[in-house]
Amino acid sequence: MPRLYALLVGIDRYLAVRPELRGCSNDVDLAARLLRERTGGADPAPVVLRNEQATRAAVISAFRDHLGRARAGDTALLWFSGHGSTAPLPKEIWYAEESGSCQTLVCHDSRTGDVPDLYDKELALLVEEVVSGGALLVSVLDSCHSRSGMRGPAHEPPAGLPPRLAEALDQPPLLTRLLPELVRAAEDPARPRPGDRSVRHIALAACQEHEVANEARREGVVHGVFSHAIGRALGRIGPGGTYRQVWSHARALVEARFRQQLPALETPDRDLADREFLGGSLHRPAAGVTMRHLRRDWEIDMGTLHGLVFVPGEETRLAVHGVRPIRQVRVVRADTLRSTVEPVGWEPDVRAQYRLVLTEVPFPPVAVVVHDDPLLAGRITAAVRTAGPGGGPSPHVRVVPREAAADADKLLRLRRSASGELRITSADHAPLTPPVADDDAGVARTVGDAEHIARWLQVRTLTNPSSPLADQIHLEIVPALPGERTLPAGRPALPAGETELHYRRTGSRWSPPSIFVRVRNTGPQRLYCVLLDLTDRFRMDPDLFEGAFVRENWATVAGRGGPITMSLPPDRPETPGSSVTDWFMLLASEEEFSSEAFYLPRLGETTRSAGTPRSAGPGLRGVLGRLGLIAARRDGGIGPDTVADWTVKTVEIRTSVPGAAARAGSSRPSDQR
Q: How far is CA 483 from the centre of its chain?
């Protein structure tokens, strides 16, 4: 039987490198617990190296002695949380990297005496040793991997915590200080270029080469944001989940807060990305949420790692599925994999088990940090206090001090430029709004824009952690050929996960790509579905699929059955490297619900700029309709009178003009703008 061998390395404390980190040991705790819970403990226990244990020699030794035990069909997992950096190559192998320097992992004793970092060229040789016998090696690297011209944080760290970035070195080590195998490879002209990536290695990295990896506090514990996102993905995925799906889910979680940290998936063999994660060794997670009586408490088999949102002072509620009158419970304590609940107004049978459905999700106001100017902070705070209904406080945003940034699940920043203009940025300082004047009108507009962005973020991150419907409903992206008006029967969809589309050259012009969006129900019951399109202009609407039941074992095509053109916005030139992103978000429920709650115009607009989506009828209807009202409008109305299950599926679609790499925001399909 195939086996899993894991090496988990977490380094917060270093002998010669600053700053110290806070979340790396927590990351390996999380990884070890996940492997234990989700694989059943049948595989060899992971080797864990923390802080002083994780010297360069110890990491290399554990790599060879433990991961090297993997044989054909086995999987070896390296999880590294710590500082990353860059360093020049020794002159003997200068040709092995186009930029002259390469990425490094910083071990506990790196840069003391003659101890170098662990070079990626060395790591590639260690990988080759492991995979030469037929094993697959998977690396999860939660560290900064930046070239010498990297973009460091322009301001303070995004979450108030230092990024996992050690200072770049400007002097190479002696080649003889590196692995002897690298020395021999450099001396042997018949050998491949040192450090070439193996075709049996798949790497999931926290960020691109020119970016930094951040830490943040989650449920009171500091983690690498990428490690925590990978944990969330693994907490929910079953044996059929692929590397691409894990990466796509984790990237969506990271990008929801950090616009300038883009996780990467790398492998020379693209087919590897669509194989089962860790060889399918993960046990299938529970289908649905079950409540049982244990140790004098009522417990549910869902925790924060599955995506349960628990905020002290805010309500997280579930209810018994399909039962009238409604029988609800509230979450009183949330752990990583389980939570404690208490019944609300009823007495469960301690001998029974109950299937629950999530009915109430906390949407606390999004935190706003105002930088550098106490007078400006006072003006913004005063405006927020009167921005709500009837002149009361804003229900969507709250101003917090800078030291509270690390505790904020969703965070916006506000700065005044040297020229006196105001601008909102993401947590990691990416501009989100155009600059406005620093006057009373500018302050009012800035607060209004922050509220708008907050409403968009609340819906963008909406999820039901453990619904069995997630395995029943599917959102598929199917390429459309030029001139096609209908989807040919049987055409396969693109691989699940993030989708990359490209303009094509037609004569002297660039032509945007087109796609079909297929909604497929593979289950035994019909589901009511709404498809939202979310854009980086913070628009959200259900025009592509306004709401309808999709019957059991059936598929339908969104966009009224036709192709959807994915193009740049009119104000973005069609030049090589330009790119846009759409998030298609499928909401599915056992009962009909109102889609009207999920409409939000573009930032700066107050009225609908496209057709009016069809509502599910007058008044509030369905659990999803109610959650939409709370998230987007902070108006929940009355509670649900029935409890139906629901789920959310999101596909990120990036469209670019071929050429130099660039990162931009998102667009609407051209016929919808």
A: 35
Share of the chain above pLDDT 70, in %: 88
DSSP string, 477-536: EEEE-TT--SPPTTPPPPPSS-EEEE-EEETTEEE--EEEEEEEE-SSS-EEEEEEEE-T
What CA–CA distance (Å, rounded) separates 361 from 311?
Answer: 9
| Tens digit of each residue's pLDDT (9 = 90 or more) over 573-613 | 899 989 988 999 999 999 998 888 899 998 888 755 444 43
CA 143/CA 9 separation, integer angstroms: 11
The angle that helices 120-131 and 180-187 make with each other, rounded to 10 degrees, is: 90
Which has the closest alpha carbon to 540: 655, 454, 476, 463?
A: 454
Residue 579 to residue 508: CA distance in whole angstroms: 19
Locate 668 and state its tokens: 């609407």
Cβ contact 383:443 at 8 Å: yes
What is the pLDDT, as a whole number, of residue 467? 87
d(CA 3, CA 135): 10
Encode 19-58: b = buried (16+ Cβ within 10 Å), e = exposed: eebbbbbbbbbbbbebbebbbeeebeebbbbbbeebbbeb
72, 75, 78, 79: CA torsion to nearest 10: 180
pLDDT at 456 > cutoff 70: yes
Contacts of 659 (CB under 8 A, 6+ apart): 575, 576, 577
User: What values do phi and psi take at 77, rounded to 5?
Assistant: -120, 120
Q: Are strands 366-370 and 514-521 parallel, antiparallel or unpaired?
A: unpaired
What pLDDT is stored for residue 188 in this prediction? 63
Residue type, 333: R
CA distances from 656 to 499, 512, 566, 622 (A): 11, 9, 10, 38
The pLDDT > 90 percentage for the chain reads 52
CA dist 82 and 141 (Å) reads: 8
Cβ atoms within 10 Å of 110's Cβ, excluding its own: 26
Phi, psi of 140 (to 5 degrees): -115, 110
Across the range 42-53, mean pLDDT stands at 92
Instruction: Count Cα atoms within 13 angstroms, Cβ side, for 615.
Output: 12
Q: Angle CA(302)–CA(307)–CA(311) in degrees, nearest 5?
A: 90
Decide which of 238 and 210 is more confident. Answer: 210
Packing angle of the helix pair 374-385, 440-460 (nearest 10 deg) = 70
Q: Residue 217: what pLDDT?
A: 87
User: Which residue's entry shows tokens 């995925």?
Assistant: 237
Q: Are 102 and 119 in contact (CB under 8 A)?
A: yes
pLDDT at 309: 84
**241-300 confidence digits (pLDDT tens):** 889 889 988 888 888 788 889 899 988 887 888 888 988 777 666 567 999 999 889 999
What pLDDT does 614 receive? 38
Distances (CA, A) of 487 to 502, 512, 552: 19, 18, 20
Of the candidates 522, 526, 524, the one whose C-alpha atom is nearest the C-alpha of residue 589 is 526
Residues in Cβ contact with 433 at an 8 Å cutoff, skipping those fewer than 6 apart: 423, 424, 446, 449, 453, 603
